[in-house]
What does this fold into?
Amino acid sequence: MEKMSWIKIMVLAIAIVIAGYFVGNMHKVAKEYDRSVKVKGLSEREVKADLAVWPIHISLAGNDLRTLQSDIKDHKDQVYQFFLNQGFTEEELTVGTTNINDANADMYGGSSQNRAYRYFAKTDFTIRTKDIEKLQKALEASLDLVSKGIIIGSKNTWRPIEYSFSGLNQIKPLMIEEATRNAREVAEKFAKDSQSKVGKIRSAQQGQFSINSRDENTPEIKIVRVVSTIDYLLED
It folds into this structure.
């Protein structure tokens, strides 16, 4: 009986030692896993817009509806021909609807007696092209239409042409790679200062891509930007 008791005590002691080892090792692993550094990596690209949209309208006013309708057709034809002469294709030009307002039917426009014209017409045009340079030249040449008495206006007078970049998918992999590389460089600098080494990635979060104009004067030049957040484990 006494011998069996000693055996039980020895087995219990060994079990306690083994359990202590695993508990201590788990605590060590947990502490190592808890040692990490979270850094951000930036990637930027300057690209040229590859699509331009210029929404415009033709404005006319008159007192005789039939004459106004005839003038509208004449101006529409001249504007359409102007853009064809500038090198645009029919697929790049879209003629929208024509709206005519009657001042006498405007309940909230006040008295129409002091108005020079009764009818006001507006016809929409949209120029959509990938040839950015051609559209910019057309914008400058559009003053020729004014000299012919054709008044065109842009929906956005401050920035008449809308520029966009559609090639994000082509540059996205390289930008993510660059952002990740930059993030690791920052992590290695931190690890060096703390006398550690950069280990595996603990977690990573890819930020959203943003596309903005470089500045107000050159909206056709875009800045593509992404910031990745990466959490690296640190090792001794």
The first helix runs from residue 2 to 34.
